[in-house]
Design a protein that fits this description.
Helix content: 25-40%
Oligomer: single chain
Strand content: 5-15%
CATH topology of the largest domain: TIM Barrel
Number of domains: 4
Shape: globular
Largest sheet: 8 strands, parallel, barrel
Number of strands: 19
Radius of gyration: 24 Å
């Protein structure tokens, strides 16, 4: 069974000449013909080279791998029951799904309240994040969930003021922080600022804490989409030169006269800006945690990716030693930026395997009485059944699910519909619901009553994200009600069962034919 798709993908705008005669080993057409213009990845690479490494078109897409991993969340099923209720009176008039509580608090000393067990992980300097930040920030704030500002914001902000290598003002970062805080309600949610190598050198978190009132920060070891630093494409020569002066790796060299001449002639149209990879040590990590606390950070998280098991163990152990508040573990296969396409498909530990190892490591520390931070897992979550399964897989240690592509998609759709409504060109597929914002967005009426005059300032991108979150909330309540779990803290690992022997072996979750075996024996006696 071939798990990967090779040599042709919508992500790289490539395709095979033949549709049904493809070599499963190489991905090449079985008959590669002299005279073909080169539509496949090999062919396009013959004339565009390294450009074909990255998903395209840059700036208006998010990407996720096409690889069919041996296991995923569909290999588990949610178990329901007819007996009793946890967290509520076992009364049919009381134990109804609208009464399921989805709120919880996360953190060690400084608690963050969330209305849903969801965090939006780092969305950084990519054009797709910036162009949809209004929808993301306002929608997340209204929904009462944390939102993470990703890497490279200050370094990519052309208007940033940098003195002696340290940022002292960044309009872009200030705008992102303020937008969320202005719409935050009743103390729910939080804006979290992430930092990579370049951000740390620039002092981005120091600036945000001292000047922007940021109290929650995140250290970044990596993500599930790639095992190198972040990259974006730059179409402007002057900006590419600015970023090189600020310390980024920019390819090709935008200060080389021959490169400049080739760019101006149109030989190529984009520069690549790359971030550096970090060098993790326990001493360095603990030192940085203490520095951030001394600066005034009240909530500290660590984001790590789909690295080898030893690195996952380091993340769990170092997070325990540093007594940080949240550990975010992102599995292989997804991304919101410009991750190299083959890397996104072919590196890293996939979700079920990574999260199962994470549960084992967390459980080992917890049983020894060692401190354990709250844990969030990420990697392709989009709908309520996946959220339930993810939380159950690592219960009681997994407290949140990280979602980026889903919320971003909802914000983009909301924004696009708002534009179509304003132009009087509502698509036929949507027009059956109405022609106005209030008719099309089903949560608009309730939000309008709640926000009053402020509702008019809510962008439709935010309405899209908020409405999506309300759908997830109701769907999750229904699943939890069926499992008779009326608050998140009652979800346990035996609320799901493995549908295959392999899923059971990897996760430690019992096979569906073997779950409840002891209880069944007692009943049938």
């Amino acid at each position: 069974m071939t798990l990967s798709k090779l040599n042709a993908s919508a992500a790289t705008l490539t395709k095979n000449r033949t549709d049904d005669s493809i070599s499963p080993i190489s991905g090449m057409c079985v008959t590669c013909v002299d005279g073909c213009i080169g539509m496949c990845e090999i062919g396009k690479s013959a004339y565009r080279g390294a450009e074909v490494i990255y998903p395209q078109p840059f700036g208006i897409i998010t990407t996720a791998s096409e690889k069919a991993y041996p296991l995923d969340l569909s290999h588990f099923t949610i178990m329901g029951t007819t007996v009793g209720a946890y967290g509520i009176a076992p009364d049919s008039d009381v134990a109804i799904f609208p009464n399921v509580r989805l709120e919880r608090t996360i953190g060690h000393k400084h608690k963050i309240k969330v209305k849903l067990p969801i965090v939006i992980p780092g969305l950084g300097s990519t054009a797709i994040a910036k162009n949809n930040w209004e929808g993301l920030a306002i929608g997340a704030a209204l929904a009462g969930i944390p939102l993470t500002i990703g890497e490279n914001i200050c370094g990519m902000d052309e208007k940033s003021e940098i003195v002696n290598g340290r940022v002292v003002h960044s309009p872009e970062l200030a705008w992102r922080v303020k937008l969320y805080k202005d719409w935050q309600r009743d103390g729910y949610g939080e804006i979290i600022l992430q930092a990579n190598v370049e951000d740390t050198r620039l002092g981005a978190q120091e600036y945000a804490i001292s000047k922007l009132g940021v109290t929650a920060v995140e250290l970044k070891w990596g993500q599930g989409a790639k095992d190198i630093g972040g990259e974006v494409k730059i179409k402007d020569l002057r900006k590419a030169q600015l970023l090189k002066r600020r310390g980024y790796v920019v390819l090709p060299d935008p200060e080389n006269p021959q490169v400049i001449e080739a760019f101006e002639r149109g030989v190529f149209h984009e520069f690549e800006r790359h971030s550096r990879v970090g060098m993790v040590t326990e001493e360095g990590f603990l030192k940085r945690v203490e520095e951030l606390r001394a600066l005034g950070a009240k909530f500290i998280s660590l984001k790590t990716g789909a690295y080898r098991p030893a690195d996952l163990a380091r993340a769990v152990k170092f997070a325990s030693e540093g007594k940080i508040d949240l550990l975010v573990v992102d599995a292989a296969g997804g991304g919101t930026g410009m991750s190299p396409w083959r890397m996104m498909n072919e590196w890293g530990v996939p979700g079920i395997e990574l999260w199962s190892l994470l549960y084992q490591y967390a459980d080992r520390l917890a049983k020894r009485g060692e401190y354990l931070p709250d844990i969030a897992i990420a990697g392709g979550f989009t709908l309520e059944d996946q959220i339930f399964k993810g939380l159950a897989l690592g219960a009681p240690y997994f407290r949140l699910v990280g979602m980026a592509r889903g919320p971003l998609a909802a914000a983009m759709v909301g924004k696009t519909l708002g534009q179509r409504i304003a132009e009087g060109e509502v698509p036929v597929y949507v027009a059956r619901f109405g022609q106005s914002v209030e008719e099309i967005f089903i949560t608009a009426a309730d939000l309008k009553r709640e926000l009053g005059d402020d509702f008019a300032r809510v962008p439709t991108g935010a309405l899209g994200l908020y409405t999506y979150m309300q759908r997830l909330a109701q769907g999750l309540r229904q699943l939890m009600c069926g499992a008779r779990k009326f608050a998140l803290e009652y979800i346990t690992r035996d609320d799901i069962a493995a549908l295959t022997r392999e899923a059971a072996a990897v996760s430690g979750i019992p096979y569906v034919m073997e779950i409840d075996a002891q209880e069944v024996e007692q009943i049938l006696k």
